[in-house]
Amino acid sequence: MDALTDAELTILGLLVEHPRHGYELEHVIEERGVRNWTALGFSSIYYVLDRLAKRGLIEAVGPRAAAKSRVPFQATDTGREQCAAATREALAAPSPVRARVLVAMANSPALPDAEVAAGLAERRTALAERLAELRAIRAAQEPLPAAARGIFDYSEAMLTAEIAWADTTLTTYEQETAMDKYDVKKARKDLYAPSAKDFALVEVPELRYLAVDGHGDPNAGAAYGDAVEALYSTAYALKFASKADGRDFTVGPLEGLWRSADLAAFVERRKKDWDWTMIISLPEWITDDQVRAAVAKAAEKKDNPALEKLRVLTLNEGPSVQILHHGSYDDEGPTLDRLHNAYMPEHGLTFNGDHHEVYLSDPRRTEPAKLKTVLRQPVRPV
Question: Cα torsion at 279, 283, 286, 290 (round to 10°)?
Fold first, then answer.
């Protein structure tokens, strides 16, 4: 026989006590504050009664009333047995935590910290109101039998614990919001938010990066994926360690330096001929010793061969031409062709470093047509 849902077990238990009709069940559920610990709306009471009756766990008693809501039901012998068995199981077996807020917390990195804090503050207020309501319902029914006291004690404990969790988590987010968090995209908008309309000449200062080198098509083999994973695991280990020391920062976007003996390989997208260095920017206060410690921390969690290749790269690109590209990476060819064979010759410029790309979008969550990528080329006068 199928297991009883929480709603079914609740209604069946109330009918084991003594026969009741729908309105009586609603009154008892409201009076006892049952909705503080189980999802059971008024309209669903009759749905649950129908399900229990079809399973032979309850039956109508007495003369048939004109209104369905006035039909009394009682538990059958089978229903009493099922209720007792389900109750024993529910008492002994701890239930997994499936609160929807856990899903929200898992998704919260996609929101600004201020929005997460606002949502938690709203939740904290709602929890406090629910706790006050529960205590009022309890006070109106005192003195309570042992079973009812246990229900109210558990419900109060859960709400109190949730309020404490909300307070602690809210404090963390408020502190993060108040903390001066460094974000390279905001600090250097000239480098990370270029126009998509035309090429622009910018001066790129000396910057430091986490870097891993590789060769060939990034879509073929495991080397590229290992490199990206090593960069992010190290970058986040650095972030958490730095934050603990009082200086927080937003992990920068993934970037790539691309080179080939034949520059036409980029325009023609001959990826097997590419050499690459994948990079993530470092705040200026991060030291080499901190990077080594972060690499060791990342290695403790997962054995990644690319961690051994990770290094700190100091890059001084100087004058560079850049543009924001919208669309698939494979559609960059025409833009690069214009840069290499039109814009640079017309402005008396030639190559002075690797082709540099900044990936502002996550390709795992963004349609190819909506990807945003900064295309940058260091240059010097001919």
Answer: -40
